[in-house]
């Protein structure tokens, strides 16, 4: 067993280092590395203890009936207990080994169980200049309808003036103009530069997509490569800003462990069923949104998730209701313009995006139509045009969250 453990410690790290990281997710990789460096030594400890026990004189006497004096096992234990011929040197050696191991292991423990890696906003300079092109729809000539009225009817019919009917129809057509944004006119960010980014961002930062885990439902619906990671890929294609290698998931209780001013500007929530949170988790979400400046991006994946969302938000923000997000809100204006607001997509819970505001900014964006379904491979049967709108709306929401977080923490410094 000891030989196998030694072989494992020598071979497994090399295999993991050379393995394709895309073959399995980050959590699986971390579990394997932890098993290599922590699990294997603990397993190796058992055969060592058994070997020492077999070398003790008491064990030999039990099995053979013979054995006198001090066997090798007793001498090993005595040496470890007393420090051998030079206890001071042995004590110094123990301290040196303990400090060395602590210096290596403790940062890993702190990183994994204590603080979270900072979420940095991409450093640089940019300023999107959205060029809105209005394309008026060509009015179609409608076939004139005829009315047939019974002159002997007991009812009195008063028809609207024909000119009034034409005026209302023309007004409706004129107010349904469509718009397109030219994303090539600038790069996302602040500062007026051409490369994109925010002047007080963090060097080497990537745009990350973090969703929250919760109890009672399928929080990981359509997660990972081939699903929500597609949004990050399209974000990179649209903006040129660097993105993370994977999407991520965190327990709600991990949010306070991000450094101040380095928390995620937004976190994502989705599912089809129940969404259960504790009182402590509700307080954490409230502080994340109101004090830290984050935003909850919630997507209804179907089922009774809409009811669960409303119960959860009532717990997080008591006394505050979801309200309609107006079509001309800034969240729909850059970098892509949505003149009619958020596309409804599958509209499991209505056709309008809703939200909760705090100090003039949206801290909750709730989409009722399963936008996440349009991000994944195949787009759940939706057309390429519908999927393109879903990606662009996701880019708008991320861009809005980044700007609001940056304005709160860095433009006021």
Instruction: Identify the overall geometry.
Output: elongated
Our measurement of the CA-to-CA distance between the termini, rounded to an integer number of angstroms, reads 60 Å
Indicate the multimeric state: single chain
- What is the CATH architecture assignment of the largest domain? 3-Layer(aba) Sandwich
User: In percent, how helical is the residue content?
Assistant: 40-55%
Mean pLDDT: 78
The CATH superfamily of the largest domain bears the name Domain of unknown function DUF4159
CATH topology heading of the largest domain: Rossmann fold
CATH class of the largest domain: Alpha Beta
Can you write the helix and strand succession as a string? HHHHHEHEEHEEHEHEEEHH
Low-confidence stretches: 21-25, 131-139, 162-185
The description of the largest β-sheet is: 5 strands, mixed
- From the helix content, strand content and strand pairing, which structural class follows? alpha/beta
Strand order, main sheet: write it out.
Answer: 5-6-9-8-7
Portion of residues in beta strands equals 5-15%
Rg of Cα set:
32 Å
**Beta strands, count:** 9
Q: Count the helices. How many?
A: 11
Total domain modules: 3
């Amino acid at each position: 067993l000891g030989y196998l453990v030694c072989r494992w410690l020598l071979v497994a790290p090399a295999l993991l280092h050379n393995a394709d990281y895309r073959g399995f997710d980050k959590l699986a990789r971390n579990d394997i590395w932890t098993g290599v460096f922590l699990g294997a030594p603990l397993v190796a400890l058992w055969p060592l203890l058994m070997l020492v026990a077999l070398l003790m004189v008491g064990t030999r006497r039990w099995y053979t009936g013979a054995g006198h004096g001090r066997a090798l096992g007793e001498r090993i234990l005595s040496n470890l207990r007393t420090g051998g011929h030079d206890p001071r040197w042995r004590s110094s050696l123990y301290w040196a080994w303990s400090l060395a191991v602590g210096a290596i292991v403790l940062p890993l423990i702190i990183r994994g169980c204590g603080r979270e890696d900072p979420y940095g906003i991409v450093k640089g300079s940019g300023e999107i200049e959205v060029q809105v092109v209005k394309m008026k729809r060509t009015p179609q000539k409608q076939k004139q309808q005829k009315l047939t009225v019974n002159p002997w009817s007991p009812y009195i019919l008063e028809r609207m003036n024909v000119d009034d009917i034409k005026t209302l129809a023309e007004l409706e057509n004129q107010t349904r103009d469509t718009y397109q944004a030219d994303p090539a006119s600038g790069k996302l960010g602040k500062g007026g530069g051409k490369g994109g980014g925010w002047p007080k961002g963090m060097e080497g930062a990537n745009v990350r997509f973090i969703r929250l885990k919760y109890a009672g439902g399928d929080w990981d619906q359509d997660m990972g490569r081939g699903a929500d990671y597609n949004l990050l890929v399209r974000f990179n294609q649209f903006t040129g800003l660097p993105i993370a290698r994977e999407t991520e998931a965190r327990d709600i209780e991990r949010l306070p462990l991000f450094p101040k001013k380095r928390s995620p500007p937004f976190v994502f929530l989705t599912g089809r069923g129940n969404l259960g949170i504790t009182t402590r988790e509700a307080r954490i979400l409230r502080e994340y949104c109101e004090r830290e400046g984050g935003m909850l991006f919630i997507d209804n994946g179907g089922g009774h998730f809409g009811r669960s969302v409303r119960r959860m938000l009532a717990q997080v923000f008591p006394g505050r209701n979801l309200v309609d997000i107006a079509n001309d809100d800034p969240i729909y204006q850059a970098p892509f313009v949505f003149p009619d607001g958020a596309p409804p997509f599958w509209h499991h819970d209505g056709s309008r995006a809703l939200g909760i505001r705090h100090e003039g900014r949206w801290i909750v964006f709730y989409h009722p139509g399963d936008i996440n379904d349009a991000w994944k491979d195949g787009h759940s049967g939706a057309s390429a045009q519908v999927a393109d709108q879903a990606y662009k709306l996701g880019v708008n929401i991320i861009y809005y969250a980044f700007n609001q977080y940056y304005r709160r923490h860095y433009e006021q410094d």
